[in-house]
Amino acid sequence: xxxxxxxxxxxxxxAAHLADRGEQIAEVRQVSERRGSRAxxxxxxxxxxxxxxxxxxxxxxxxxxxxxxxxxxxxxxxxRLGAVPVGYLVGAGECESGRWLAVTWAPGGPMWxxxxxxxxxxxxxxxxxxxxxxxxxxxxxxxMHRAGWVHADIQPTNTLVTRDGSATLIDYALACGxxxxxxxxxxxxxxxxxxxxxxxxxxxxxxxxxxxxxxxHIAPTAAADVWALGASLFWCWTxxxxxxxxxxxxxxxxxxxxxxxxxxxxxxxxxPWPFPGFEEIVAGCLHPDPDKxxxxxxxxxxxxxxxx
Length: 308
Ligand SMILES: Nc1ncnc2c1ncn2[C@@H]1O[C@H](COP(=O)(O)OP(=O)(O)O)[C@@H](O)[C@H]1O
Ligand SMILES: [Mg+2]
Fold this sequence. Notes:
Layout: H1 9-20, E1 25-34, E2 37-44, E3 48-54, H2 64-80, E4 89-95, E5 98-104, E6 109-110, H3 111-114, H4 124-146, E7 159-161, E8 167-169, H5 203-210, H6 222-238, H7 252-260, H8 267-270, H9 276-285, H10 296-306
Antiparallel strand pairs: 1-2, 2-3, 3-5, 4-5, 6-7, 7-8
Helix pairs in contact: 4-6, 4-10, 5-7, 6-9
The structure holds adenosine-5'-diphosphate and magnesium ion (MG).
């Protein structure tokens, strides 16, 4: 909690923006600081916002200000396309310390914690929780895919899940859309995409990363989002990351080689309890051949069928 005199520059900038809308900040809490970006929960009397800003030191030479500016453009475009919830982008701009970006606060907690009961208990509630989480993740992905966009960083920390299993995808920093004349150019000068979190990287993306130099941009795909979605569900339900690594503590490159092989752990050896309908859905998402994975829209129907 900060008082207004001690607010960091991005919070001050959001406060001014909200004041123009007749809202006053009631509470500020920092929620993360990593990889050159900081985030806060900022609450007013009626609303809550997630505020993201760059740290003053650059991380691994990346230009976080430019990345936040791109993310603002991405969320604005996704909003225009109806691919993120209405009004998700609250504001963005420059401040003393760099750039800030505010979005609507999504309810729930990180997926790993939200699904913890499902890692031990087989109950009607945990079955519902897993299916509802899978369904809402698929629906969020499908609303982007329908518009020709991909999230490109689906992973447990970017998925917030409520007690009833309703999931929201956050973090549009790596999202990619169609590049064509007449569309906003968000890609000039961007950091090349080289996969996101290792454990949720699809085999074909892993192979492309291994087969190209660091400056080459690898276009993420909807099928790779589906793999990442399945990997997140596999991981948060079984407690195991889906690919068995030869060197679990080794470098990223070795893990990417294992992922590129296309093998995943057998559910029978890691599931906390049998849930055949759900296992089948997750296994389908983790198919090594991207063309054989379900499209996110079809995934919604398959999950609904599994819940009946
Ligand atoms: N819309 C949101 N609702 C709730 N919390 C959010 C939201 N957006 C971001 N956060 C919080 O801020 C953290 C960092 O945001 P994120 O967009 O994932 O950035 P990065 O991973 O680049 O640090 C998240 O892990 C989450 O705790
Ligand atoms: Mg994130």
